[in-house]
Amino acid sequence: MEKATENPNSEAQPPPHPNHQMDADDDDENVKQLKECSSLYLSLQDCLVDNNRDWKSCQKHVQALKACHERRTKK
């Protein structure tokens, strides 16, 4: 009977941390200033992390944040 080889990656790993541990409700004053656009900003940051900081891959997020900011400044 063959002994099963152990996979070094099979050890229990802690779950990965979310890209943003703090949300807009936390003490990040810069994000709080974005008010209703803060979730779009955090979404853009997640996209950039997921795409190796490639802005071209995240243009939908960039445009959504830009549109939100423009709506806010018109109020």
From TrEMBL:
Q: Where is this region: Disordered?
A: 1-32
Keywords (alphabetical) are: Disulfide bond
**Origin superkingdom:** Eukaryota
Pfam families membership: CHCH
Q: Which residues cross the membrane?
A: none
Residues of the CHCH domain: 37-70
Signal peptide position in this chain?
none
Q: Polar residues bias located where? A: 1-12
**What is the name listed in the Swiss-Prot or TrEMBL entry for this protein?**
CHCH domain-containing protein
Q: Which organism is it from?
A: Brassica oleracea var. oleracea
